[in-house]
Design brief:
Number of strands of chain A: 11
Radius of gyration of chain B: 13 Å
Number of strands of chain B: 11
Order of helices and strands of chain A: EEEEEEEEEEE
Radius of gyration of chain A: 13 Å
Distance between the termini of chain B: 37 Å
Number of helices of chain A: 0
Strand content of chain B: over 45%
Largest sheet of chain A: 6 strands, mixed
Distance between the termini of chain A: 41 Å
Order of helices and strands of chain B: EEEEEEEEEEE
Oligomer: heterodimer
Largest interface: A-B, 23 and 23 residues
Shape of chain A: globular
Structural class of chain B: mainly beta
Number of helices of chain B: 0
Helix content of chain A: under 10%
Structural class of chain A: mainly beta
Chain lengths: 114, 113
C-alpha cells in the first residue's frame, strides 16, 4: 500500500523567498515520486519526477526535489518564488512496475505575497 | 506537443441521469486512467485500463461506473445513474509504453443537481 502526506495545506511566501513544500511518502515497494502543479481552473501539469536515477531531480520553472529514502521524503523547493508560482501543488507516488496508478497527497496551496 | 483532451469541460446533469465523459489520450499511449477530485479534496484514482480491459479499479468505481475504448482514439467514463456526491472534477490520464509519466487532461467538471 502507498500513501502520501503533504505537510501544510497552505504555504505563503514572499516574492523572491525560498519555496519549500513538504512531502513524505509511505510505500511497501520502491517508489516513483512525482510533483504536479494545478493552476486555477486547469488540469495537472507534471513539474518533476523521481524514477530511481539521480536523487536530486530538477523540473520545470526552476523547481527541484530531493529523494531521501532514509527520511521517506521528497520535498519540493525553489530558491526564489515568483508571483506566477501561485498554484496548488500535489505530490504523488506510484509503484515502479510501470504504468501504475498514482496516489496523491492532499495538496498544498502556495500563495506568493508581493 | 501531444496532449490529452477531454470533453465537455463542464457538464451539468440531474441526479439519476446518465453521463458520459470523453477523453482522447495521446495517440501512441497504451495505458489509460480516470481520476476524480471532489472540490477541496485530493485527486483520487478511479480506474486504469490496458489492452481493452480494466487493469485496476478503486472501491469508488462501483457498478454505476464503466469505462470503454470504443475506437482507437476515445476513452470514455460512464456514470449510469448520477448521485449528488458524484459532483467532482474528472481527469483522464495516459501513459506510453516507453514512459513512466502520466499525462493529464484538463478535466471535466461534473455538477449533479
Amino acid at each position: 500500500a502507498q500513501s502520501v502526506t503533504q505537510l501544510g495545506s497552505h504555504v505563503s511566501v514572499s516574492e523572491g523567498a525560498l519555496v519549500l513544500l513538504r512531502c513524505n511518502y509511505s510505500s511497501s515497494v520502491p517508489p516513483y515520486l512525482f510533483w504536479y502543479v494545478q493552476y486555477p481552473n486547469q488540469g495537472l501539469q507534471l513539474l518533476l519526477k523521481y524514477t530511481s536515477a539521480a536523487t536530486l531531480v530538477k523540473g520545470i520553472n526552476g523547481f527541484e526535489a530531493e529523494f531521501k529514502k532514509s527520511e521517506t521524503s521528497f520535498h519540493l523547493t525553489k530558491p526564489s518564488a515568483h508571483m506566477s508560482d501561485a498554484a496548488e501543488y500535489f505530490c504523488a507516488v506510484s509503484a515502479i512496475q510501470g504504468a501504475q496508478k498514482l496516489v496523491f497527497g492532499q495538496g498544498t496551496r502556495l500563495t506568493i505575497n508581493p | 506537443e501531444p496532449e490529452v483532451t477531454q470533453t465537455p469541460s463542464h457538464q451539468v446533469t440531474q441526479m439519476g441521469q446518465e453521463v458520459i465523459l470523453r477523453c482522447v489520450p495521446i495517440s501512441n499511449h497504451l495505458y489509460f486512467y480516470w481520476y476524480r477530485q471532489i472540490l477541496g479534496q485530493k485527486v483520487e484514482f478511479l480506474v486504469s485500463f490496458y489492452n481493452n480491459e480494466i487493469s485496476e479499479k478503486s472501491e469508488i468505481f462501483d457498478d454505476q461506473f464503466s469505462v470503454e475504448r470504443p475506437d482507437g482514439s476515445n476513452f470514455t467514463l460512464k456514470i449510469r445513474s448520477t448521485k449528488l456526491e458524484d459532483s467532482a472534477m474528472y481527469f483522464c490520464a495516459s501513459v506510453g509504453d516507453s514512459t513512466d509519466t502520466q499525462y493529464f487532461g484538463p478535466g471535466t467538471r461534473l455538477t449533479v443537481l
